[in-house]
Amino acid sequence: MSVAVVENDKESILAAPPAPATGKSVFKNLHTREFIGHKKKVHSVAWNCLGKKLASGSVDQTARIWHIEPHGHSKAKDMELKGHTDSVDQLCWDPKHGDLLATASGDKTVRLWDARTGKCSQQVDLSGENINITYKPDGTHIAVGNRDDELTIIDVRKFKAIHKRKFTYEVNEIAWNTTGELFFLTTGNGTVEVLEYPSLQTLHTLVAHTAGCYCIAIDPTGRYLAVGSADALVSLWDVSEMLCARTFTKLEWPVRTISFNYDGQYIASASEDLFIDISEVETGRSVYQIPCRAAMNSVEWNPKYNLLAFAADDKNKYQADEGVFRVFGFDSP
């Protein structure tokens, strides 16, 4: 009788459907491609809403737009955007329009570019060196943060500043939630300030980390926000309850940049560690590391595919900036 039970168990195991691919097997045979064009290091990379164009911003005072076929082998074409007179520190695409790009620069301007022509269509002069920029999900407003901890809201239709607010504490990255009703600031105090939008009144202060909070990302499903900190941890927060769901602990250096993939299943995080960590959002389990050669400035997942763009402080053998960024996730080199 016991033998029959064993036989039945064996049959049921053989008949069981194959287990779904785990994170490791999803990523292990994928390749990284290098994109060369900038003369100095790349600070920021961002995909447009269609996932076919990628913008890069550099210390060389330019941005570039690259046409990248997710499944193609053709050489990526790029277009140079000239006009800024200082480093292009961060950039973001209009979430509703695949050809409109906004750039924030140390030259105190924010510029809007048409990716079809490479021309600057709008410019607004602000009061400080801009280091952060993000679009409201409906594409109507842009928020800009500068080195003096001042937040400016720009009305995209008029391309004019409609609100300015100076904070008494260090403000790092900024983000809206997916519906545009909440606005988040990560601070040097280790907190995330949750503001109501558009009043910008404080609703919550999340005591998130034991050191400064540097970067923030919003899960595309709207359920979570993730925060990267100088304490080398990434914390995951349930937006509806404003409670910490879990932390990711793989990195050993201050977390500089984080990004959710297109379906919210994975989160990438990076620091001065010589790898980018990819972890499962729901379990916190680290499933893959992408090796890199220098401290990371920017990681961003494509909004449609598992392609991760990343830019670091890469230098060549002569210790000069390489001016490259890379994209991981291609089926072939």
Automatic annotation (TrEMBL):
UniProt xrefs under InterPro entries: Tex1/THOC3, WD40/YVTN_repeat-like_dom_sf, WD40_PAC1, WD40_repeat_CS, WD40_repeat_dom_sf, WD40_rpt
One Pfam family from the record: Beta-prop_THOC3
SUPFAM superfamilies tied to this protein: WD40 repeat-like
Keyword entries, A-Z: Repeat, WD repeat
CDD domains for this protein: WD40
Coiled coil region boundaries: none
Residues passing through the membrane, by range: none
Residue stretches of each WD repeat: 35-69, 81-123, 206-247
UniProt xrefs under PROSITE patterns: WD_REPEATS_1 (PS00678), WD_REPEATS_2 (PS50082), WD_REPEATS_REGION (PS50294)
Family to which the UniProt record says this protein belongs: Belongs to the THOC3 family.
Protein name per UniProt: THO complex subunit 3
The organism of origin for this protein: Sphagnum troendelagicum
